[in-house]
Each structure stands twice: as structure tokens, then as C-alpha cells.
Design goal:
- The chain is mainly alpha-helical and 122 residues long.
- It contains six helices and no strands.
- α1 runs antiparallel to α3.
- The longest helix has 16 residues.
Length: 122
């Protein structure tokens, strides 16, 4: 029997993300980001860094949390709910895995690096 219930720590983590993002003016940040002004969105990213979201999948040796995939899903679901601007999936889920053995992972964890992923055309 599989249990898909989140534990108390995961529920608290989701609640802390909700509290931080609920206090942010996300609609204005999204509008500004889409118009080329990333400053308000970067303030949101700073809050995510303070909560440890940007460090979730980064290895501990680079000051990351090395969290479980479930913790990542908890965070990503909340970020999607709040429509956080920017390359969320790439920076928080993909780049830490691609850069797992790279010191730049520390910059991802610290919120100093926001990454996007692109593939060359076929």
C-alpha cells in the first residue's frame, strides 16, 4: 500500500511558500517580467532562496539541501499555483541535476544564478 500523504515538514514547507508568495505582488512581478523588467520577479526569487527552494536539488557539497523528489514536487506545485515568473523548472529542477558535479551549483543554491535550458535545433 502506497501512502501519498505529505508529512508535517512538507506541509509546513508548502505553507511557508504560500505565506511568502501570498505577501508578494506576484501579478505585478509577472507583468513586469513579461515586459522585460525582471527586478520585481528577482525579489520573489530572493524570497524563494531564503526559503531554501533554490537549493532543493543542489548537492550538499555545494551548499544545497539535496532534498527528496517529493520535496521538489511540493515546492514546484506551490510555485505553479502562484505563477512565479522566470525559468522556474529549469533553475530549480533541471539545472541542479545537469550541474550536479559543477561548482556553479552553489550559485544556484544561493539564488545568484538563474538558468534556462535550450537544446540546439535538430
Amino acid at each position: 500500500l502506497m501512502d501519498f500523504t505529505l508529512d508535517e515538514q512538507q506541509r509546513d514547507f508548502a505553507a511557508s511558500i504560500d505565506a511568502a508568495l501570498g505577501a508578494a505582488d506576484l501579478p505585478a512581478a509577472v507583468r513586469a517580467w513579461s515586459a522585460g523588467d525582471t527586478a520585481p520577479g528577482l525579489k520573489v526569487w530572493e524570497q524563494l532562496t531564503n526559503l531554501g527552494v533554490t537549493a532543493l536539488m543542489v548537492p550538499e557539497r555545494y551548499d544545497g539541501i539535496d532534498a527528496s523528489p517529493v520535496d521538489l514536487v511540493v515546492a514546484m506545485e506551490r510555485l505553479g499555483h502562484w505563477c512565479v515568473p522566470g525559468p522556474v523548472t529549469e533553475s530549480i529542477a533541471v539545472a541542479p541535476i545537469l550541474l550536479a558535479d559543477d561548482a556553479r551549483s552553489g550559485a544556484l543554491a544561493a539564488g545568484e544564478l538563474i538558468a534556462t535550458v535550450a537544446l540546439p535545433p535538430d
